[in-house]
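Run log // design_07
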């Protein structure tokens, strides 16, 4: 394949008078600024609207309750399986919100979340919005990182292309509007990599910030740990590249190698310091006693945990995570239930839930990044961390959703920006058309981003036939269900099988469990979360099969009638 059509730069002002050149540059800056503003505003509107309309998802009450305990008691005792930084970010939204909570009787972390939202006189709608707003703001800031990274590689137009893919990503919008940890963790990794790329020119200016961003990722989710050795190697490589010289003597090579090693060590030390700082911010005395049984971890995993230079609370959290990994979970993929995990689950789930135009641009951008000499130095920074994190996630025991791979739409949006370097009108036209296709699909799914699937798999209304859990139904539509029942089915008997952390009665849904009543008494409306439909067995499966589907809510809850 010939790449003679690839250019390093385009100068649209060549041959024009200086005054006109300045006007063109000014107009172009205003136009690009407007494009960036429009993209970020539409993303903000999508996320805020989603945050306002959705009830708590399964994980959110735990994080919100833990964040409130951080603020009130400076205690690390809840949710040790995740480091505190992400919950400290959530806590910034609660800091100026009056929250009633008696932590003395809160119970475990699940009971804590339920108590703070539903049993202490608080308004869960207001509390969840306040908790979600900091994550929304951070998601928008990561959009600027995507823009800056791509702009560094291919120029401003490419940066706008990358930002458009990021801003219209249904998965990023869906999870960026929740008080969870997935978007912050992935965004911090991306930020660290971008700063390491910039460190090729100014190591002293960017390496400390890169270490801080890496530490922030590790202090948010432990699933980012596989990226640490990759980023330390990139730190060393950035310094090696920055110290490039024509002197081939061994002494110079040894000095460059020593500086590269020192750079990697410095980044590691800053990252470790940030992790410690996150724990100290919660409790300056680092009081820690595990509330629940912490699994013993043996072998190489045990050695890795014991040798990590992190607080004991972090290392116990890792032991809990390894305990989860040793558990057999129930999965659902392409209409089939299974026990355990499938190595190809995430690639298939991404194929279902990523817009088709985005998939095409990801693939084309990755090829361009490897094939084009100008972009080839950036390939280890953009593609290698993505591949390592994806492989690590594919090996996990929990096949619960593409939220475990939210780094993909971030990093690969940057890779896709490389398409603007192809000097072919058809390439630019195809890139623009694919971006518009992505935008149209994203706008069409508004405001139901969580259950999104692309056109090849039938769209959001069909996602539950192929995937479950956080891909479709994470408990987010309990409020919408309450509105639907009140508007269309007032006074009818409700039988409910709900998968989520919300409390149906708080929203005015007074229902019975059909699995606990004789079959001949289950008459009226049978309401079932789609994840429960996907995995229905025995009695529930028989009830569903003998009912008539009459409605659905948010593409995540199905309503049946039983007569």
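design_07 sequence
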């Amino acid at each position: 394949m010939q790449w003679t059509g690839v250019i390093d730069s385009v100068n649209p002002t060549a041959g024009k008078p200086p005054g006109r050149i300045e006007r063109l540059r000014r107009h172009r800056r205003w136009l690009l600024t407007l494009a960036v503003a429009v993209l970020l505003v539409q993303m903000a509107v999508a996320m805020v609207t989603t945050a306002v309309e959705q009830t708590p998802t399964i994980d959110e009450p735990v994080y919100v309750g833990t964040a409130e305990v951080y603020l009130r008691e400076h205690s690390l005792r809840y949710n040790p399986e995740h480091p505190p930084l992400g919950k400290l970010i959530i806590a910034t939204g609660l800091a100026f919100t009056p929250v009633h909570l008696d932590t003395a009787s809160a119970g475990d972390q699940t009971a804590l979340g339920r108590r703070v939202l539903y049993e202490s006189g608080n308004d869960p709608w207001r509390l969840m919005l306040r908790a979600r707003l900091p994550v929304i703001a951070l998601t928008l800031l990561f959009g600027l990182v995507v823009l800056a990274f791509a702009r560094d590689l291919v120029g401003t137009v490419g940066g706008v292309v990358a930002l458009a893919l990021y801003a219209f990503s249904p998965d990023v919008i869906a999870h960026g509007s929740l008080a969870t940890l997935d978007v912050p963790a992935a965004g911090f990794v991306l930020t660290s990599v971008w700063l390491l790329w910039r460190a090729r020119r100014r190591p002293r200016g960017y390496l400390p910030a890169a270490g801080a961003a890496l530490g922030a990722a590790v202090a948010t989710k432990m699933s980012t740990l596989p990226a640490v050795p990759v980023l330390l190697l990139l730190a060393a490589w950035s310094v090696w590249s920055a110290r490039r010289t024509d002197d081939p003597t061994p002494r110079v090579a040894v000095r460059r190698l020593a500086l590269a090693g020192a750079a990697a060590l410095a980044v590691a030390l800053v990252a470790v310091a940030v992790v410690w700082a996150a724990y100290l911010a919660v409790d300056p005395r680092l009081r820690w006693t595990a509330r629940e049984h912490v699994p013993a971890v043996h072998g190489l995993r045990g050695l890795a945990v014991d040798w990590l230079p992190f607080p004991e609370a972090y290392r116990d959290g890792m032991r809990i995570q390894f305990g989860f990994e040793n558990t057999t979970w129930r999965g659902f993929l392409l209409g089939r239930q299974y026990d355990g995990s499938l190595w190809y689950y995430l690639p298939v789930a991404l194929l279902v839930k990523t817009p088709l135009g985005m998939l095409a641009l990801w693939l084309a951008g990755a090829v361009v990044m490897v094939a084009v000499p100008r972009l080839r130095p950036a390939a280890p920074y953009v593609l290698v961390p993505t591949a390592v994190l994806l492989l690590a996630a594919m090996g996990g025991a929990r096949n619960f959703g593409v939220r475990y791979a939210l780094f993909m739409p971030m990093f690969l949006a940057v890779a896709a920006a490389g398409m603007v370097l192809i000097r072919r009108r058809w390439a630019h036209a195809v890139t623009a058309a694919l971006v518009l296709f992505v935008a149209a699909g994203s706008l069409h799914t508004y405001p139901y981003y969580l259950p999104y699937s692309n056109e090849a798999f039938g769209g959001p209304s069909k996602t539950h036939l192929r995937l479950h859990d956080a891909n479709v139904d994470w408990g987010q539509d309990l409020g919408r269900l309450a509105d639907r029942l009140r508007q269309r089915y007032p006074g009818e008997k409700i039988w409910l099988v709900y998968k989520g952390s919300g409390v149906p009665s708080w929203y005015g849904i007074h229902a019975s469990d059909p699995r606990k009543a004789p079959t001949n008494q289950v008459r009226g409306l049978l309401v079932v979360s789609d994840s429960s439909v996907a995995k229905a067995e025995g009695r529930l499966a028989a009830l569903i099969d003998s009912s008539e589907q009459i409605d659905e809510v948010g593409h995540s809850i199905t309503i049946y009638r039983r007569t």
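Strands lie at 330-333, 336-339, 494-497, 524-529, 548-553, 557-562.
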